[in-house]
């Protein structure tokens, strides 16, 4: 198939540091190429991919201090895709609702993977206005506020098997907090949990401009506690050691988390996750196997006393079985094929014999797991 992947422009694909959506787009795009498909990635010009890159903006918007209106580059991105839409069998957007008015009548099968929260009141009228726009959710919990939208599937995020691997030579000696510092991620509760458990906490996280005031007033004073080490934002190469050296990842969220990529990053390293029971958490974490799902700070502190009952090799095995990039890509291919079959006027690109062989081999491997 000829597939267009359309990424947000805020970060490169993959991001140099933090960035969940663009990171997933990178893993999916490269996995689709491995399956033998002809993939074009529309993204910022500083992106790196095994697919054909169509740069829609010179570099990631977060790294460009001259950009004040981030909507303008995305409008240009949509127009760029619209002009060449007929060259593809499927257009796959990662821009939430932005493609709806542009592509609902374009005559080319498209879908949008929704990566963000959907419980905001202003979103329902937008999705109601485009009831037939094809959507993929990243957890079943994510779609609850919009149950009547045109959901084609729930497809969990995945990581390349070899991207993050356990470092068994490291002796876990601290708790970890990884991701973004904002009110809904509740780093303040992670600090409290670690204090009550008598364990050190390492914080590897970024601060967005929008959360700078919250960081300065609420979080920064807490970072001076003797049990807290603020590492700052880390890149992909640093995550293995950071997560493998942790007794557990703390995920005390206070919002309906759509997926939580950091959870499967921890699982990939064999590191258990202690997470609050919100949003997607029960779909990602298997309680008592890959971590513990708790309701509050006392529950998290108690769960830390039970870590020895968990098997880190089994956690890694669980990740490989449920959250690989290859599995994610194959699920998307299945959705693409459904879209093509539902559009009889669309003639999908016929794969070469080599492409069919690659795809057949992959399907065999998937069925053999």
UniProtKB/TrEMBL annotation:
It holds the Pfam family Glyco_transf_4. Residues 172-297 form the Glycosyl transferase family domain. Residues 18-125 form the Glycosyltransferase subfamily 4-like N-terminal domain. Keywords: Transferase. SUPFAM superfamilies: UDP-Glycosyltransferase/glycogen phosphorylase. GO terms for molecular function: glycosyltransferase activity. Transmembrane segments: none annotated. It comes from the Bacteria. PANTHER family: BLL5217 PROTEIN (PTHR12526:SF595), GLYCOSYLTRANSFERASE (PTHR12526). This is Glycosyl transferase. It comes from Trinickia soli.
């Amino acid at each position: 198939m000829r597939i267009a992947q359309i990424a947000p422009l805020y970060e490169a694909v993959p991001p140099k540091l933090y960035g969940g959506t663009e990171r997933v787009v990178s893993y999916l795009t490269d996995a689709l190429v491995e399956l033998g498909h002809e993939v074009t990635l529309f993204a910022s010009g500083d992106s790196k991919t095994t697919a054909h890159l169509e740069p829609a903006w010179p570099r990631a918007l977060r790294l460009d201090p001259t950009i004040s209106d981030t909507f303008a580059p995305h409008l240009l991105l949509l127009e760029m895709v619209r002009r060449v839409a007929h060259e593809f069998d499927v257009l796959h957007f990662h821009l939430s609702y932005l493609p709806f008015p542009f592509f609902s009548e374009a005559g080319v099968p498209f879908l949008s993977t929704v990566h963000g929260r959907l419980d905001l009141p202003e979103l329902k009228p937008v999705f109601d206005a485009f009831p037939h726009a094809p959507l993929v959710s990243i957890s079943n919990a994510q779609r609850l506020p919009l149950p009547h939208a045109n959901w084609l599937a729930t497809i969990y995020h995945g990581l390349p098997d070899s991207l993050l691997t356990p470092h068994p030579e490291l002796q876990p000696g601290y708790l970890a907090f990884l991701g973004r510092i904002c009110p809904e991620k509740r780093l303040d509760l992670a600090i409290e949990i670690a204090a009550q458990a008598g364990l050190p906490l390492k914080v590897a996280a970024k601060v967005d401009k929008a959360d700078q005031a919250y960081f300065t007033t609420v979080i920064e004073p807490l970072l001076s506690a003797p049990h807290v080490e603020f590492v700052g934002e880390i890149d992909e190469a640093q995550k293995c050691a950071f997560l493998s050296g942790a007794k557990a990842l703390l995920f005390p969220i206070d919002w309906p988390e759509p997926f939580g990529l950091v959870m499967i990053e921890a699982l990939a390293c064999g590191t258990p996750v202690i997470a609050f029971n919100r949003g997607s958490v029960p779909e990602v974490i298997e309680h008592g196997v890959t971590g513990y799902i708790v309701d509050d700070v006392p529950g998290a502190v108690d769960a830390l006393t039970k870590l020895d009952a968990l098997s880190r090799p089994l956690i890694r095995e669980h990740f490989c079985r449920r959250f690989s990039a290859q599995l994610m890509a194959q699920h998307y291919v299945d959705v693409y094929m459904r879209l093509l079959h539902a559009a009889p006027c669309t003639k999908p690109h016929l794969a070469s014999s080599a492409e069919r062989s690659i795809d057949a081999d992959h399907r065999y491997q998937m069925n053999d797991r």
